Every structure is written in C-alpha cells, then in structure tokens.
Amino acid sequence: MITSLLIANRGEIARRVIRTAKRLGIRTVAIASDPDLDLPYAREADEVVELGAPAPATSYLDAGRVLAIAADHDVEAIHPGYGFLAENADFAQAVGDAGITWVGPSPDAMRAMGDKATARALMAKAGVAVASGSTAPVLDIDSALDVAHDIGYPVMVKATAGGGGIGMSAAHDDAELRAAYTTARARAERFFAHPGLLIERFVEHARHLEVQILGLADGQIVAVGVRDCSMQRRHQKIIEESPPPNVTQGLLERLVTMAVEAGEAVAYRNAGTVESLYDVERDEIVFLEMNTRLQVEHPVTEMVTGLDLVEEQLRIAAGLAPTFDPRVPVRTHGHAIELRVYAEDPIRFLPRPGTITEWVMPAGPDVRVDAGYAVGNTVTAFYDPLLAKVVVWGTDRDEARQRAQIAADGIAVTGPQCNAPFLVQALADPEFAGGTYDTGVVSRILARG
Prior knowledge:
The chain has about 450 residues and is of the alpha+beta class. It folds into 3 domains: about 5-105, Rossmann fold, CATH 3.40.50.20; about 130-200, Dna Ligase, domain 1 (2-Layer Sandwich), CATH 3.30.1490.20; about 205-449, 2-Layer Sandwich (D-amino Acid Aminotransferase, Chain A, domain 1), CATH 3.30.470.20. The protein contains 15 helices and 20 strands. The protein has helices at about 10-25, 40-45, 65-70, 90-95, 105-115, 115-125, 140-150, 175-190, 250-265, 300-305, 310-315, 395-410, 420-430, 430-435, 440-449; strands at about 5, 25-35, 45-50, 75-80, 100, 155-160, 170, 195-200, 205-215, 220-235, 235-240, 270-280, 285-290, 335-340, 355, 360, 365-370, 380, 385-395, 410-415. Strands 13-12-9-10-11-14-19-17 form an 8-stranded antiparallel β-sheet, with helices on both faces. Strand 9 and strand 10 (about 220-235) form a beta hairpin. Helix 4 packs antiparallel against helix 5 (about 105-115), helix 7 (about 140-150) packs across helix 8 and helix 12 runs antiparallel to helix 13 (about 420-430). It is globular.
C-alpha cells in the first residue's frame, strides 16, 4: 500500500481523503491557501504546506508548485480529489514522469475523455450510443446553426472541455442558439481556455443517470452502483440518490453494460463515472460524458455498497487487488440520498460567502456528513461554495427520503447564506417524493412555491 500521500485539493474532499488515509496508516500532506489554513482538513493532515494568496491560479491550480511540494515532502503519491487539477492530463503526466504515483486514470484516458467531442467520437466508434449532434468541436455560429438545422431543435450547447455544467444552455430556435453560442463560447474560453463547443439534441424530459466504475489494476472494468443525479440547478447537481427510483432492472443492466464498454474503450484504470441521459419518452440511453476522477456524489454509492471508494482508488494506484471479489457483481443494500449544502441563496442559487457564526449539521444512525467547514471558518468567493454533503441511508427509498427530510430540517448555517430551505422544499415536493422527476424539476419546484 502507498505510505505517503499529498492531497492536491481543499475542503470536504481533502478531508474525506485524509480520513481514509489515516485509517490505512498513510502519512498525509495537505496544501492550503491563506483563508484555508484554519479549515478542518488543514488541521487533520499530518503536514500542511501554506500556499499564500487564495487566487486558484497561484495556489491549487499551480501544477508546477504542487509537484514541487510533493517532491520536497517526499510523498509517494498524489490524490487530486475533484476539481482544480483532478482532470488535468498534463499534470497527471508530470506526476508520473516525476516518479510519483497518480491516484487516478492514465493521462491518455484523461485526454481521450477530457474533450467531449473526442469522447463522443471514441464512444460511437466503440458502439456506445451517443446523442445526435456535432462530430467535432464547433468553432463558429454558422457551423452551430448548420448542426442545429440538421438534427432539429431543441439543442444543447456545451463546452467541449471542462465540466460542472459551465458553458451549457439549451436553445429552441436560431435566435436562442445565437445567444447561447455567444455565452457558452465566452465561458469556455474563460474557464477552460478552449473555445470549442458541442451541439447535441436536447432531451426535454431526461433523467441524468450515471454508473460508478472501477478500472482495476489487472485491467478489469467493474461497475459498482448506479446513481440518479437529475435534481440540478444550472446543470449542476444538488441532490443525488442510489439506486435510481422507478427504474427497471433491464434499464439498470443497459446502463451498466454501456459504462463497462466505455471504460474498456479507453483501457480505464481507477475510479471513474460514466454519465448518461435517459430519454423517458423514447426509452433511449445516450452517453453524456465520462468523469475521470472521483465524483462529488460518491458517498451515496459507498452507503449502499459498503465500499470505501477512496481506499479502492489507493489500492488500484498501488497495483493491489480490490477489497471485494471482482468476479461477483457488487450488491447494493437499501437506498441512499445525498444533499449538497451550498453557501448560496435558496432561490436564485447565487453564491453567498461569509464567516460562519453558526454551524449545525444533522447526526445519528445512518447519517453521514462530509463537511469542509466549521464554525468560525470563512467561506470566500474564490472557490466553489460547497459547504458539506449530508448523506442518509434507509432500508428503502421512502425511509431514506424521510430521514433526509429530518436531516435537512436539522441544518443551520449562519454567516453565509445557505440552500438548506430549498433542500427541505425539494424533498417534500410530490414529484421528487414519487421518484418521477427529471432534469427540469428544480424550475418546477420553484414555480410551485
């Protein structure tokens, strides 16, 4: 097993990785910008290295500096978490070239899946279903209009690089497409330094379903759970659950088959997620993208499988067998729901940072809280406003949802504004309660008041 680890991240995911590393006896080195030095993860690591000013470009995104810190502190491996450098193939390559173990997939797999247009083409070649749309990055509005006219409106415009829903918007006619194209391109250039866009058929009533896969050290691809991530605002997830509600066994098997085929197409190693859109009206599944890292919502899979996905990541990176028998399908037990607690207003979902003067999170049996902050900490505008993840388990979905409602009612954060009131509202909404929701549910919940 790996004996020393640098966590190239911050907040709740850094703390999450440290927790498993400590259990396994692995020495941990954390990095922290000035406002993060008082966060729980920085106190819980065996060592912490100060990064100085909080700007991401000169702190967590400074690949050369992070690599130098790893060398100076003689660590054996780097875990990137998610965000920042987690899907930077050049950084992963540099880590390997420096003789340090990268806890993630190969740089080649990251490059193949990092560009959505390239990934689409690769998946189509492998026989994986993809949505109708452009076969190469679209670099001008005339080309975008040609694709839209060919496949028909509505269409989705998205950046070929990056993730997190940045640079995504739907268009129902030429005028909307022109506006969406301008906005998406500007965001793609700003956040990903890449102007390429992808135009796809937009599914009006879609469910966002995803499969957690592990590419094992021996080359086998195994699926270890399916999640529903359809509860989204601005194309970013708020509530996730596993297993997906109101889904047939046949559909689950189709999702798993697609995910394994996608992993095999790029000889995938380590933890990854194959995301799909399910067209409810057509009963069609299409490949959306592959996230070459651990997902924010990985705890729901851990809650229903009993696996520690960070431990599995570390074992794979070290060339070890998993903790389970890969010849036997991983079974799930009960139902889990994850609530993302953000420092944002609960109606417009805009970030609302501040210093935390009250911090109350739920506790109890079958309740897990992965928190990045504590009372007295300051949430800044420099980073993602995710404060914590509250995950609950129940013997079935009804029990899990009821426990989630109780948990959401127990969240109290003062200082920054918090989205807990919306989480309470969403969990009680009849559409979510019935498990019949799709990716448009948030706007309908807000409209219902």
